[in-house]
Amino acid sequence: MTEKTFKALLVEEPEEGSFTRRIVERSTSDLPPGEVLVRVRYSSLNYKDVLSATGNKGVTRKYPHTPGVDAAGVVEESSVPGFEAGEEVIVTGRDLGMNTPGGFGQYIRIPSSWVLRRPAALSLRESMIYGTAGFTAAYSLLKLMPHVRPDEGEVLVTGASGGVGSMAVALLAKAGYRVVAATGKPGAAPFLENLGARAVIDRDKVKDAPERSLLRSHWAGAVDTVGGPFLAGALKSTCFGGVVTTCGNVASPDLSLTVYPFILRGVSLLGIAAAEAPDDVRREIWQKLAGDWKLECLESLRTEVSLNDLDSCIDKMLRGESRGRTVIDLDR
Fold it and tell me: Which percentage of the chain shows pLDDT scores above 70?
């Protein structure tokens, strides 16, 4: 294998508990063993990347490290017959960007089981507008659809202006659901309405009332992306037989409520573990995102930056100021 040098964002821990980020030049010889070497063209920024980039040991155990749970690019070398040099591929989830150097570098080396061929109707760039956020939102929709019909009532999306939330709003609207988007960003209403939200409400209207075991029934279903009191509030106000999916914990990992939403209203809570989705589900979702579920509004969801811009984007997401999807062009 020919050794190559490349640029990458490197997170370091010069002192215990203190973390720095900088763009460095690395070599492919620094990458871990793996069957497929990919030249990354695009990546995207997710909340898990922010945690890794700021030293969260629950996400990344050892530093120095290159985050990036998403990568789309071209196979440079392969030691297995399943992939050949020149093929365009997508890599999301698994351990990429967590403890394995990720898509914030121009090269990754990974097991072939992590690699998915790019669907023909989806460009590399488009795949990273979706990224893990879009995949997670689509996985939520896939789990919700068998239980909640579009004509049964309104579907709530919490954290609606974030990456997963905005994708969920757009995908649910495309599928014919009446979407109510909950957000803490007052200026996000036009953005969310453009994605298909029928109504935009302040997130505090969804927040839990801890003193009450149940709230007035309202939602036919919900896609929760933030956890904590917003998930609790959504569960308490979902109608009889409704379904709530949950995939995030930016508000809190804690869930404090009684069993009453489940035993009096028959509400179901479905967890979305996108990083470990089975291969058949992963293929199905990406084919849907390239086909019937492909969004016409993809471009309006994304902000595109270079690797050099990424540090400030991480800080912005950490402050809760980002909106939609941030795509990183690794060739800029």
Answer: 100
**Do residue 75 and residue 156 come from a single domain?**
no
The total domain count for the chain is 2
Residue 137 lies in a domain: yes
- As a whole number, mean pLDDT of residues 205-228 equals 95
- From the list 247, 170, 154, 258, the residue with the least C-alpha distance to 206 is 154
Q: List phi, psi (to 5°) of 224.
A: -95, 130
Pull the structure tokens for residue 67: 């985050």
Say which amino acid occupies 187. G
Return the amino acid letter for 157. V
DSSP bridge partners of 243: 221, 268
Split at pLDDT 50, 70, 90, the class of 323 is confident
pLDDT in tens, 153-207: 999 999 999 999 999 999 999 999 999 999 999 899 999 999 999 999 999 999 9
**Do 267 and 137 sit in the same domain of this protein?**
yes
